[in-house]
Specification:
By secondary structure, this protein is mostly beta strands. The chain contains no helices and five strands.
Length: 98
């Protein structure tokens, strides 16, 4: 399942935005993938013909990674690594309406 939600507040000429996205792990076994969360925020300024928007997003995910099942001493029978990912994206949009 994928869920997305967001909101915008308008205080002319300033616009404030925020939102979140959730992407569910597509695999039944949680060792094969990860849920992904994306959080976003934005700020915009608009006039009659020009606008500028700033956006920030943070993407987070965590995965369990293991190469081979070889050791009965390990939980689930294999050595594993739990990897946490974070990615930041910044964007600026500048426009002119004519």
């Amino acid at each position: 399942h994928n869920l997305k939600a967001g909101a915008e507040l308008r205080f002319n000429p300033i616009y404030l935005r925020a939102g979140a996205q959730y992407y569910m792990n597509p695999f039944e076994d949680p060792r094969n993938g990860s849920d992904i969360w994306i959080y976003g925020a934005g700020l915009g300024f608009r006039s009659n013909q020009t606008f500028i928007d700033f956006a920030y997003t943070l993407r987070t995910a965590s995965e369990t990674y293991g190469l081979y099942q070889h050791s009965p001493d390990q939980v689930d029978g294999f050595e594993k690594s739990i990897n946490d990912y974070r990615a930041v994206n910044l964007m600026v949009t500048l426009g002119y309406k004519f």
